Amino acid sequence: MRMISNTVRFMALIGFAGCAFSQPAYDLLLQGGHVIDPRNGISAVRDVAIKDGTIAAVAPHLDPAAALKVVNVAGLYVTPGLVDMHVHVYTGTGERNSYAGDLSVYPDGFTFRNGVTTVADAGCSGWRNFEDFKDRVIDRSRTRVFAFLNIVGQGMRGAKFENDQTDMEAAPAAEMALKYKNIVVGFKTAHYAGPEWTPVEHAVEAGTIAKMPVMVDFGSDRPERPISELLAKKLRPGDIYTHCYSGLRHELDDAGKLNPGMIEGRKRGVIFDVGHGNGSFAWRIAVPALKQGFPPDSISTDLHVASMNSSMKDMLNVMDKFLAMGMSLDDVIRRSTWNPAREIQHEELGHLSVGATADVAVLSLDRGKFGFTDMYGARLQGTQKLICELTVRNGKVVYDLNGISRPDWTKLPKDYKQTGDSRWDGIMPQRRTGGK
Q1: Cβ atoms within 10 A of the Cβ of 234, count?
Q2: How many whole angstroms separate alpha carbon 296 and alpha carbon 322?
Q3: C-beta of residue 304 within 8 angstroms of C-beta of residue 99
Q4: Which segment of 3-7, 285-289, 382-386 scores lowest on mean pLDDT?
């Protein structure tokens, strides 16, 4: 009997130890939200589970007992982390009137609160100063930051540099891009005022060498280089025409019809990006274009110090404008997640497939009367407005507007010091001192 009793006691201890050291199946469970995942064709109520920084499961019902942390997101939309592929974030140099300086912004102040987990800087740095940009901003940001490398070696430092054809070298630009091919996603040409095709042709040459796309801000409108030739001949499939609703380069003709070059470019596989900015989006261009069946391939902000406080404001505001023009929420999400992820050749992002990086946005859709303005201050009234409630980056909560992932303070111990677990929100427990 004593031998049996000891055996039972030993087995009980083993069982207790197993329970004490067992790990939950999921770190974080987002429960009951309407999942919109365009890549996987999902637009329905689903639970989303996260483990070790990746998507572990997406299903109509997952056991909450299997999760370390459960967040009720019923009534909200759960999407992949938003991808803003046109921003300006090379700052900190102290250079005035420069997008490699004071005109750019640090990304973390504008991303997570809008559900954005990934951005691509649009040509602020060239091959000569990219490594400084990487050290100052990219390596220090919690936001995932990619970069289009400017074909101008000095980057986007103003007209003196951006009109210098002698600094538009394809070979060193391609060499730098390939050196950092995990960060550089393509090449950019912007703001060129001359009549030559040099910046476009050299950017395309660099893109061909590195097997990366080119983004074009077409600069000054010149009869010697019409948009039709750019889109129908100069750019390759997968290259990107940004500011596609600016109206500054004859995107529509005088009768309000789409420029045939826009249609031909799309047929050839050219990508059309919003790039809203402070001066690149007009209702009188966007509304007719959408009515003529020409939506953007990707929605982006062109974030910088001027646009953030003018008509653009932020990523969700730009997305709201397309809702106001009649685009469905599912289509808006596609153009803000999966489409841009594909365009920058990072298909590991922009979706909620099992095994994918756990970047997630949880959004509410408010209904009421809202006003949205374009680059000229013209207003369009809308009835829907997106608000970011929660952002998850690499499996950790990095933004929580209303504390929906947090416990109520009255339910915590009297001397509570921290309210989370590093496996789901990155908050480490406070260490006690003094031997207590």
Answers
A1: 18
A2: 10
A3: yes
A4: 3-7
**In this predicted model, what pLDDT tens digit does every residue of 243-266 receive, in sequence order?**
999 999 999 999 999 999 999 999
Q: Mean pLDDT across the chain, nearest whole number?
A: 93
pLDDT > 90? residue 58: yes
H or E segment and range at residue 363: strand 360-373
Cβ(302)–Cβ(88) below 8 Å: yes
Residues 6+ apart with CB under 8 A from 55: 48, 49, 352, 353, 354, 355, 356, 357, 358
Do residues 2 and 46 touch, judged by C-beta distance below 8 A? Answer: no
DSSP 129-166: THHHHHHHTGGG-SSEEEEEEESSTT-SS-HHHHT-GG
DSSP assignment letter at 99: T
Long-range CB contacts for residues 162-168, cutoff 8 Å, separation at least 24 = 162/190, 162/191, 162/192, 163/192, 163/193, 163/194, 165/194, 165/196, 165/198, 165/199, 167/126, 168/198, 168/199, 168/202, 168/203
Q: What pLDDT was estimated at residue 429?
A: 52
Strand partners, 182: none
User: Cα separations (Å) of 108 from 81, 123, 147, 233, 285?
Assistant: 14, 19, 15, 38, 31
Could you give the maximum distance between any two Cα atoms of the chain, in Å?
Answer: 101
What gap in Å lies between CA 255 and CA 325, rounded to an integer? 21
Express as a percent the part of the chain with pLDDT over 70: 92
pLDDT confidence bin for 11, thresholds 50/70/90: very low
Residue type, 279: G
Token reading at 69 = 């942390």
Amino acid letter, 42: I
Mean of the pLDDT values across residues 146-153?
Answer: 98
What CA–CA distance (Å, rounded) separates 392 from 363? 12
CATH of 82-353+363-382, one of 3.50.50.60, 3.30.1340.10, 3.40.50.300, 3.20.20.140: 3.20.20.140
Q: Where are the domains of the chain?
A: 82-353+363-382
Helix ranges restricted to H, 146-276:
159-162, 170-179, 198-210, 227-229, 260-268
- State how far the Cα of 149 lies from the Cα of 251, in Å rounded to an integer: 25
Which residues have C-beta within 8 Å of that of residue 373, sequence separation ≥ 6? 311, 379, 380
Residues forming a β-bridge with 422: none
